[in-house]
Every structure is written in C-alpha cells, then in structure tokens.
C-alpha cells in the first residue's frame, strides 16, 4: 500500500520528559520517523488540505495555543521546551489567561507532552499526511498508510497529552464524513488507550471507537479506557474498550482482536481507520505486552478479513530499531489477507 508523510514531521524534537519523578530522554524521538522511512522507503509527500479539517476536530483556541506556545515560552524568557506544571483538574472556570504556564495547563492532560520549536509544523504535517492517505482510499486505493509522527490518539478536541498534539485519526474521520462517508470504525491497537479519540467520538453513534490496550488500572492514561466506558447519548454502545493485563502475548491478544472485529462488523462501517502502534512489541522500552514480529502479520491479516477500505494511521512504538520491521510485518498481513 502507498504511504504518505511530510518532512516537517522530522523536526519535532523535544529534549526530555518527566518519568517517575525524574527526567528521561524524550521517547517519541525523530529517530522513530527516520526508522519508518528507512524501512518503507520515502513514500509520497503529504498534500496540504489546510487548517479547516483540523478545526473540524479541535477547538480554535487550542489550535491557536499550539501554534503560539513555543514563541510565548521564548518571550517569557524560557529556554528549551515549553512544559506545563499546573493543571486545572478540578474543572475550574474556563479562564482565558495570558501567562504561558497557565495556557499550557489549561490545554494539557499531562506533563509528558513538551512543545519544541518544530512541534506545530510536525503535528500539522502529520495531520496532512493522514488527510492525504485518506484521499488515496476515497479515490480508489483499497488501503493506505499515513506515517504520522507525532502520534495523535491521546489528544482531544481541546487538550494535548501523551506525546500527541493533533488527533490524526479523528481529523481523517471527520474529513471522510465531510466527503459523504458517514459510518466509520476506528480500531485502536496501540498499547495505550486512545483517550483523545474516545473523547472526540464519545457521543457520536456514527463513529465506532474500538480499542485494545493495556489496562488503565496499571498503565497510562489511567483515567480512560476502562471496560465500562461504552459511549453516551447517541454514542451509547459505539465505544468498546478491551483492556488487557501487562504481559499479554498473542494468545491473549488474538481473542480481544476477534471481539473488536465483531464489533466493527456489527457497526457496518464504510471506512475503517486503524490507529496502529507497535508499542505492543515485547521489547518496547515503555510498554508491557509481549507481541513478536510475526504477530503483527497475523494482526494485519485478521484486520484485512474485514474487507473494508482502510486507512492506517501511525501512533506509538518506541523500540526504534524494530519499529520499521514491525510496521512492515503488519502491512504484509494487511496486504496478504486481502
Ligand atoms: C503515546 B502513544 C512518563 C510516562 C508518560 C506517556 C505515554 C504516551 C504514549 N514518561 N507516558 O500511545 O504510544
Ligand atoms: Zn502507545
């Protein structure tokens, strides 16, 4: 299948992140993007669909914040990456404050999502990659791949978090709807729950969000992804969470995938969007499942049995040396099963 990306995606390079009370090198590194291009070849450049499809998902004030945050940080006399340290977790009034630290807190869910000089351009380029890959599917490709980086599934309409700034899968889903594809399924197989995607579509009955992920009782993002979260209002029943324990291997994973695919079939979508993360890999440095390379081929093959037009959007995966090979193994399965 064809793949798409934007060179700006290489230039988002935060230095470090908070980890268990100390600093570690930022895991979501530019080397991930280089590894993907190394394994798959350069692919095709993203086209620019403009800001409108981004604003169909994200609040204008949040988008303005993302564009300005690093400049405001520098203007405040700071060095390095913009990072927050105060968060309005008890739902304080929606104050539009000027101080950069107050803005960051108001638009964040965590302290692991720094804004560097190249962050906005990279996130924008990744969103355009998703829109370009979507266009390929809507104009006849059976499947296509957006090599998004930074990832997107943790950020919501008005907040960043979990290394995510713009929700690429959600932006593609809304763009597909604008082009007449109403019923959509988003299948999220990243190790972490896609809380942002879930939030965006929680009361939307036309977009199924089905996710297989590490149990949030033990893993980030903790506050979302529990099995009893099933959607609300019109969206009741259109969210499916399948949390699995740390240590899960393919024998434990495959039945959950079958359950998720049954839900996708029952939803009857005209388009499938896969949020693919390779951080379910046994050797992932920040995650705790035990999938091996060949399991990704099985995963891709199983997903391909849905026989749906499919957009694959890249999310996480932090074993950089294995990342390209793991994605390629998944794509082999997707192609072979079709
Ligand atoms: C993004 B994606 C502190 C822990 C924060 C954030 C994980 C984000 C994963 N260092 N971890 O779902 O792969
Ligand atoms: Zn992840």
UniProtKB/TrEMBL annotation:
Alphabetized UniProt keyword annotations:
Hydrolase, Metal-binding, Zinc
Q: Which organism is it from?
A: Alteriqipengyuania abyssalis
| InterPro entries per the UniProt record, alphabetical | HDACs, His_deacetylse_dom, His_deacetylse_dom_sf, Ureohydrolase_dom_sf
UniProt family annotation = Belongs to the histone deacetylase family.
One Pfam annotation reads Hist_deacetyl
List residues of the Histone deacetylase domain.
46-333
Q: Which Gene3D superfamilies match?
A: Histone deacetylase domain
Required cofactor(s): Zn(2+)
Q: What is this protein called?
A: Histone deacetylase family protein
Source species, domain of life: Bacteria
